[in-house]
Amino acid sequence: MSDVSGGAGWWQASDGKWYRPEQHPSYRPPPVPPTPPHTPHNGGAAQAVVSAPVIPAVATKASAPLAPVTPPRQWDGFSGFVGQDRSPASVIGLSVVTLGIYYFVWYYQINAEIRTHDPEIQVTPGLCVLAALVPIASVVSAFSTASRIRQMQLDEGQTETISPVVAMLLFMFTGIGFPLYVASELQAHWRGHRRASRGLAPAA
Questions:
Q1: What confidence category does residue 32 fall into, taking pLDDT thresholds of 50, 70 and 90?
Q2: Exposed (0-12), middle (13-18) or buried (19+): which is 105, by Cβ within 10 Å?
């Protein structure tokens, strides 16, 4: 602002004062000229500078760790132990002579032999005998023992196996039929191992 004009572009307001051109209400600044691209020189030869495209960072969602896969149960062969060859008739005969005492001895031994023969089958023979002394638990124990025999047979690829349901029904309604059925299945199984150890074909 001045009392006299400062040159071209200055303007006088209603107060009688002179103002710079950029102070006028309708003043528009001149456009800024574009900046020329910088061209680097190497030995007098111009080289174009190509900027690499900027790839935006993409946030990746962390995947949840996969749960470990449990391999299917595979039986890698029996321990080499083979149970005692007992005829069904001898089991019944000795049980009668000993007033039933031998039955519990036999019941303990067959469960122990199954556990020793197939270590993957978990069983406590002593608890099996205790369960056999209790009315309701004895039925469950009979079914479980037959199930362990069936598992042993299946582990070794046997197609014809004992039926735990049939064994349980024999135990409940016949009594004597249970040891006959179980002893015959075990005798056939142990004899099959002994024949295989001698290189003989399984019995028909």
A1: confident
A2: middle
